[in-house]
Amino acid sequence: MRVTRRVAVGLPIAAAGLGMIGLSLAGLNAAAQTADTIKIGLVLPMTGVQGAVGREVSDAAKLYMAQHGDTVAGKKIELIVRDDSSVPDNAKRLTQELIVNDKVNFLGAGLTPSAMSMAPLATEGKVPTVIMVSGTSVVTERSPYYVRTSFTLGQQSGIIADWAVKNGSKKVVAILSDWAPGAEAGKVFSDHFTKGGGEVLESLKVPLANPDFSPFLQRARDLQPDTLFVFVPAGQAGTFARQFAERGLDKSGIKLIGPGDIVDDDDLPSTGDALVGVITAGIYSAAHPSQINKDYTAAYQKASGHRANFISVGGYDGMNLIYEALKKTNGNTDADAVIGAMKGMTWESPRGTISIDPRTRDIVQNVYIRKVQKVDGQPWAIEFETFPAVKDPLKEAAN
Ligand code: PHB
After folding, report:
1. How far is CA 376 from the centre of its chain?
2. pTM for the full model?
3. Nearby residues of 36 by Cβ (< 8 Å), 6 or more positions away
């Protein structure tokens, strides 16, 4: 009885509350559109276990501004970075504050759980939001004002599965970080691999926070696969590589493959020989042989002290998308005008040519097959095959 009453009373209050927030957010954004300064609020994990991700995106965004100036279409650009410590509730609160107090014109979103929690606010507040990190397919469908410059795990996992089949893999054990992008990596990999005649012996799920890979690596080894398919998110490749080598798996004859995350350029320099020979399908390598990438990696290294990685380009390209959209709208920040300008945009990124799919607002980009090799004493993911203009396969399958 009491529960029923609570629900009955609670619902209208919650609905009224949301309605009020909706009204005020929409009004605020209209006011923000007439200001001379255009504000971009990034909500990123700057601290905690995934803190490297926030550092990489914000360093790249700041580098973009240092290179391209802080004025676009006659308006000054101001970047605001907020730390959600990878906690979705924090991301929601910070987004609300950025919209209501700071009156931001754009948002930048980071990890999948945070991007999911920010979506209703971006929609109600009509704030164009660039997804700079999340690799989960469904995220871009959560708001009509979401546009992605990062990647999806599906984009890479189907391609590496096909490569593995072609190159003799028959029995795979999957080790997957236990959250949405890991589930998608596993699903797309397994669909392709089994279609090609391979068998996935077991999928092992590793907790996202403070992972200890050792027991999973032991279990995987006991199952005697010929190949291990592994997804760990940015920031965990170093720990994974150390435990992989400690268990002797680098010398076991079992092939290690995955999406690009397991050979994250931010961690590679510290992995010694542990990942040498590993084959991945990835969207970016710091070793990508183009002049624009050579310039990018040199400038990023100088500005941040780190090797540029696949997470950083999501921030760098995200800023380019915002700048170029503003040039097209002549400084108009109206969400529908901005999103309209972003749809179909194509440009040359440090990772190669990329574009925004006008139908899905998701990124279309090359996926490269790479092998880790030592060059001048350091491991690099060296590209040897290119799949051009790859779309998110889960969205394509749904249509
Ligand atoms: C995500 O937030 O979906 C994500 C983050 C880091 C990765 C992959 C996916 O390396």
Report:
1. 29
2. 0.93
3. 75, 76
